[in-house]
Amino acid sequence: MAALLLLSLLLLLPLLLLKLHLWPQLHWLAADLAFTVRALRCKRALRARALAAAAADPESPEGGCSLAWRLAQLARQRPAHTFLIHGARRFSYAEAERESNRAARAFLRARGWDRGPGGGGGGAGSAADAAVGNGATLAECGRDGAARGGGATAPLAPGATVALLLPASPEFLWLWFGLAKAGLCAAFVPTALRRGPLLHCLRSCGARALVLAPELLESLEPDLPALRAMGLHLWAVGPETQATGIGDLLAQASAEVDGPVPGYLSAPQSIMDTCLYIFTSGTTGLPKAARISHLKILQCQGFYQLCGVHQDDVIYLTLPLYHMSGSLLGIVGCLGIGATVVLKSKFSAGQFWEDCQQHGVTVFQYIGELCRYLVNQPPNKAEHDHKIRLAVGSGLRADTWERFVRRFGPLQVLETYGLTEGNVATFNYTGQRGAVGRASWLYKHIFPFSLIRYDVTTGEPIRDAQGHCMATSPGEPGLLVAPVSQQSPFLGYAGVPELAQGKLLKDVFRPGDVFFNTGDLLVCDDQGFLRFHDRTGDTFRWKGENVATTEVAEVLEALDFLQEVNVYGVTVPGHEGRAGMAALVLRPPNSLDLVQLYAHISENLPPYSRPRFLRLQESLATTETFKQQKVRMANEGFDPSALSDPLYVLDQAEGAYLPLTPARYSALLAGDLRV
């Protein structure tokens, strides 16, 4: 009888849950549970690694920082397994350990440290001693000594910052790992920066040295006097330079022995200590140097484990290493599972499938528009004969997602969300198209976050009468925030505290609490799926209504003759708010059909969301991580005398897009043309 009663209750439970509006979310309970178990196992494994490192012999390499002991551990456990493939070059984990040991010893000489094997004895170590002498710096190995104009450079202090201005390459990794082992802080500088922005980045992170690629020297020539005046150690990675005061770092490293470096040199006093600076690309102002702690390095070792990647997988990485996605998620994530990474210095959509076929790639890490570039390529025989089972990344639009899987599948797409300086990340482990993650109570118990109501007009969260923020309802866009704690800290940026202004919200749900403000608007549907809505700065207000650029872009991208779309708001003299403008790239061999475009937006967008201006371009302006340049485009405006691209304006009276001629532009400014 009791069994029958229990069975009846179990049969009635789904109906009860449906009535309580809980069933849509519980439909995904199995997937939520599976990911929760994986996340707990990952946390436990990382904690065990940290405790083992803390208990290790300080003289052993496994007693150092998280990067040092993980690489030493892999060199011991999987010495012959291939870690890195770059072109025709392959490196095992044992070779990676030895190369980074040489780099570490070279940097240690710049610190004035001269102890242990190769530090001052015979053999390879004495060759380096002959070149620089005891305690000398590598910058002094240049023909004319230390950098001219800035005086003699002092030895690097423990914890000093060394900036890397290098493309993605094995040398980038050996130097980064070597800096970590030597107890020095790395700063990853975007390779396109020159003049003022470059000097700003170096000053903001307090760099005491700069390592650069020889192929960049010609474009950096005008900057060299300012760099020397800063008193920086200047090193090049290779001998292809005769510039005064710039030493050949690779030659110095090759003269060192490859024996282990004592762990105590890199062991942090606190796991919260900064060990790396990564510059946020941002869309406004100069880059900011985000502080990366030893804790974050440790956490990123679990990235691929959370994604379900295994040590026998081969990962294809074509993202810049000076950004978090390439370095922390791609490289450190690979170290976390002991897998193989195929590293590309530049992305090539035409070469992608041949590379994957040649190297047996099973996992592809994407960002931004890489998948869109691939689906826009002509058919390729190799695209159907690959082993890719998983694509992991962020920024994949739902329409491109569908085209990508339909054309190149079967494969799984795992969309994620995160920020370089942030303390929250989401994973769409179910494969639900268009979603960036889940907001199940299980997930939020492990990785807590909230969506709160936000006023795009004031740029502030909406608070109740008690001054507290309010959570959003399903389907309502909200600001993503995450509580700041010891386990999920926000370290901010190098420089003045004002740089972090607005990133922390206080008294969010109760007096005294502190939350990190991501600056992103997300929507949670009734099934618990999170979808990206817009950046707070990208949502603009027109005719008293809020317009999300992503929603307008998705409508325009449904037109077959458009390949790429960038939507942003522009200031119109005499009008409140910002009017919508869309930069368009045509899909070859199509032409622009303004009649069809107007009919399409009229049917699918409310009047206030319809772009008032169109700008036809050959290609869209993007950042080096393929993010669209919205702020720059908005600043360029719609003046036909200042822009060479074809421009069009929405004429409300005519009900059509017309060429934006100087005459129409003047009429618009005079108020005679209604927008």
From TrEMBL:
- Decide whether keyword NAD is in the record: no
- Boundaries of every AMP-binding enzyme C-terminal domain copy: 551-627
Q: Per its UniProt record, what Gene3D superfamilies does this chain match?
A: 3.30.300.30, N-terminal domain of ligase-like (3.40.50.12780)
Q: What is its EC number?
A: 6.2.1.3
Domain AMP-dependent synthetase/ligase span(s) in chain numbering: 157-437
Signal peptide span: 1-18
What keywords is this UniProt entry annotated with?
A: Fatty acid metabolism, Ligase, Lipid metabolism, Lipid transport, Signal, Transport
Spell out where the chain crosses the membrane.
Answer: none
Q: Which domain of life is it from?
A: Eukaryota
Q: Which InterPro entries match?
A: AMP-bd_C, AMP-bd_C_sf, AMP-binding_CS, AMP-dep_synth/lig_dom, ANL_N_sf
Q: Does the keyword Electron transport apply?
A: no
Which reaction does this chain catalyze? tetracosanoate + ATP + CoA = tetracosanoyl-CoA + AMP + diphosphate; a very long-chain fatty acid + ATP + CoA = a very long-chain fatty acyl-CoA + AMP + diphosphate
Could you say which protein family the record assigns here? Answer: Belongs to the ATP-dependent AMP-binding enzyme family.
How is this protein named in the record? long-chain-fatty-acid--CoA ligase
- Recorded source organism is Galeopterus variegatus
